[in-house]
Amino acid sequence: MDSKFENVTMDSDTRLLSQETLKTGEWDALFQACKWDGIYGESLIYVLSEVEHMGDEELKKLALESGRVKKVSEFTIGRNDETGYVFINFNFS
Known about the structure:
Helix content: 10-25%
Strand content: 35-45%
Structural class: alpha+beta
Shape: globular
Number of helices: 2
Order of helices and strands: EEEHHEE
Mean pLDDT: 94
CATH architecture: 2-Layer Sandwich
Radius of gyration: 12 Å
Largest sheet: 5 strands, antiparallel
């Protein structure tokens, strides 16, 4: 895993199914597939300082460009100043 993502954490009740680093546009991202409370979801995680100039719509567009998002998907976006990451969550089932 890229060292810029070594501090990404998850809740103790979340099970990590897979992860890989990738690039979307010019930005490095960590892709994760997880399951928690019977819900499956996927995330693209970015370093906050690298994408903090982007609004939610720009971040959604970045996620769509990754090729990981299903045609019909809801999004949640979380910015965490403490950890320094932005989480774009999608493909819930």
